[in-house]
Amino acid sequence: MLSKRSTYIVLGIYLILTGLLNFIPGLSALTIVAAILALAAGILILITSPGISKRLGWILAAIYLILSGLTGIVNFSFSGMGIVMAVLAIAGGIVLLIGWPGFRHHIGFILFCVWLILVGLIGLVSLANLSLAFAIVAIASGILMIINE
């Protein structure tokens, strides 16, 4: 049986791998693994915890992850997808930060929200300076989610 904890572990591994892909060019062969993990994390968010999946921020984050996964696995795309993905990421990050005060003590969760916002900003505006921050936040958030910090 899948649990909320397994969702955080899959999401954490995805975030760590995403961050490492930015630091280590030789890992580019693992891009498909990152896409599969994104798709799995998005689906897990929606099916493992009804209390979580009913929250708008989690739904937006799950849709972002599923679209991201589909893009990497089957080259899924549509006109304006970059803008839609960026808006989903920013909105998901902001709504999660504002709407879930009980998790403010969970540093991994807060960093995940920050990561979503950074992903969205990078998608909307060419901010090459944010790519290092993006990678660091992804790795830190993933590690902290896995260890449940």
Q: How many whole angstroms does the radius of gyration measure?
A: 14 Å
Taken in chain order, the helices and strands follow as: HHHHHHH
Distance between the termini: 23 Å
Q: Give the number of DSSP strands.
A: 0
Helical content stands at over 70%
What best-fitting shape do the alpha-carbon axes yield?
A: globular
* SS class: mainly alpha
Which range does the strand content fall in? under 5%
Discrete helix count:
7
Give a verbal description of the structure.
Helix content is 77%, strand content 0%. The chain starts with a helix and ends with a helix. The protein has helices at 4-23, 31-48, 50-53, 56-74, 81-99, 107-124, 130-146. It is mostly helical and 149 residues long. It has seven helices and no strands. It is globular and about 30 Å long.
Core attributes:
7 helices, 77% helix, globular, 149 residues, mainly alpha, 0% strand
Chain-wise SSE layout:
Elements: H1 4-23, H2 31-48, H3 50-53, H4 56-74, H5 81-99, H6 107-124, H7 130-146
Helix pairs in contact: 1-2, 1-7, 2-4, 4-5, 5-6, 6-7
Give a short overview.
By secondary structure, the chain is mainly α. It is 77% helix and 0% strand.
